Amino acid sequence: MALSMTWVPGEPLDHGSISRGAHAADTLAGFLRVLHVEAPAEAPIATDRGAHPRNCTDGFENFFQAVAPDDIAADVRAVWEDAVAADAWEGPPVWVHGDLHPANVVVSDGTLSGIVDFGDMFAGDPAWDLAAAWVLLPAGTASRFFDMYAHADEAAIRRARGLAAMKSLFLMLMGQNGDRGLPGGKPNWGPVGRAALDRVLKGVLTRTSLNFFSISVEDHAAVHLRGFIPTTRGGDAKAHSRMPPVASRL
Fold first, then answer.
1. Which of 33, 66, 73, 203 has the greatest number of beta carbons closer than 10 A?
2. Which DSSP state fits 115?
3. Bridge partner list, 230
4. For residue 223, what pLDDT band results from cuts at 50, 70 and 90?
5. Does an H or E element contain 107, and which?
6. If you write DSSP's letter for every residue of 199-230 in order, what string do you get?
7. pLDDT given for residue 236 in this prediction
8. How far apart are CA 187 and CA 91, in angstroms?
9. What pLDDT, on a 0 to 100 scale, did the predictor assign at position 119?
């Protein structure tokens, strides 16, 4: 197994922002389309993530009870319960990054420029990465992301949205811990998590049976596969065999 490291200029999203939402949505969708290929039989299976939302209820409840705002608690629970009721992933296990949150993506020039921290890669349900449509992208871009990704059915979107709610609550809890001076807390994650949760509750624009609004894609960033390394901003990328890179330039 070979790993490669690529220097990615920019700053983590939890210390930056995305102003070019459509470009970021296209870039993230292109990256995940490349990443989400069938994993080999020897690929690792995650023990703490990757399961259907119905098997993650304890974790959701812990986060929910700790930080869910009273004024939207019922709506958040409804999103989660819908994810729990969604059909399971029936395709072959695919490579999943598994930890796409604002500290693990790099932004520059107002858009996504890199993905870092592939240490939790596993084979499983792509919905765990598709949750990034709400956790990472600006409001109003989830529909474009799913339109560009083009491989998510209705059940996958429902699971992803519920997982995004759980991830948002986790970010809020880490922010709360930071505000209280607790070990491992991240004060700046609280506002990031709340903004993500608000996006989750907005869902996606609806027009078709899959809750998509069909948007024609212009200025689509090309995604090139070298090994499993996607790039949309040029530059050299070192190819390798079975695993994606530690840092991937987009």
1. 33
2. E
3. 225
4. very low
5. strand 105-108
6. HHHH-----STTS-------SPPP-EEETTEE
7. 32
8. 38
9. 87
> CA separation (Å) from 53 to 20, 41, 130, 193, 210?
31, 23, 13, 19, 19
What is the phi/psi pair of residue 79, to 5°?
A: -65, -45
CA distance 111 to 250: 10
CA dihedral for 79, 83, 86, 90, sign (positive or negative): positive
Specify the DSSP element, H or E, that contains 122.
strand 122-124
Q: Which residues pair with 249 in a beta bridge?
A: 114
Query: Amino acid identity, residue 155?
Result: A
Furthest-apart CA atoms within the chain: distance in Å: 49
- Residue 184 identity (one-letter amino acid): G
- How far apart are the C-alpha atoms of 169 and 189, rounded to whole Å? 10
Angle between helices 154-179 and 189-202 (to 10 degrees): 150
For all residues of the chain together, what is the average pLDDT? 83
Contact status, residue 225 vs residue 32, Cβ threshold 8 Å: no
CA proximity to 114, closest of 192, 219, 35, 28: 28
Residue 77 CB-density burial (10 A; 0-12 exposed, 13-18 middle, 19+ buried) = middle
pLDDT digits (tens, 9 = 90+) for 115-162: 999 988 999 999 999 999 999 999 999 999 999 999 999 999 999 999
Residue carrying the six token digits 């990757």: 50
Q: Which pair of structure tokens corresponds to residue 123?
A: 């084979």
CB neighbours of residue 247 within 10 Å: 18
Judge whether 101 and 171 are in contact, CB under 8 Å: yes
